[in-house]
Give the backbone structure.
Amino acid sequence: MRTVQTLAVIAGWLVSLGANPRNAIEPLPRDLEIQLALSALPPHLRDAATVYVLNPARGFEVARPGTNGFHAFVARTGDDTFRGEWPLTMYRDDILYPIAFDNAGAKAQMRIFFDAAELQAKGTPAAELKRIMQQRLQAGFYPAPARAGVAYMLSPVLRTYVNPDANDTVLTANVPHVMYYAPNVSNQDIGGAQPKPGSLYPFVILHGPHGYSIQFLGVTETAAVNREYGDMLARLCSVKQAWCLPTSSPTSNGR
């Protein structure tokens, strides 16, 4: 009997490991995640926005319903993960960027983030997730936004891929910015500048149906954002060193 009980315990332990595979990302403290998500938005949109938090066992869940048509969350496996031919061999635990979509983006771009989080939560291996999402993107499963619109990334911190079309190098940066939907628009079309922190001129990223034209905040506006969220930045830095910002601004911390 004792042997049977021992085997049952071991089996249960193995099942629990399978339910929480290496694919799982450790969640942020809930209040910090909500504050980070809302930091993506300008002040006048925060109170009435819908906010989501990541449940590593399920995907994104509504933490607070909103009424103004804006949707804010903190991406941990972003849409840029599925760019380029470089292999996604494992899920990084340091990718982090607050982002907020209007209703047009929520029906198009945001679905990529949410579907990826759900598949990851179900235990999909990293390489398989990239293959699935690339196939969906190539097949037009995720449409471009139906109208002109905006996504906000005004938070003072983000960490994601520098040039995902080319490689998997990541960067921690202090570059609050606004993104305008620019499906199938190139830098040449708009006379775009070189995509670098601190640029005052717009440029296009993620070229294709889900492209964006990026506009950074100015130095004065960025400094104001940094002051507003000083405590949040310090707390985030205490959670993970990769999320610490250097002292100058605009800044980056690449690895």
Q: What stands out?
A: Confidence is low (pLDDT under 50) at residues 1-21, 248-252. The two ends are 53 Å apart (CA to CA). DSSP finds nine helices and eleven strands in the chain.
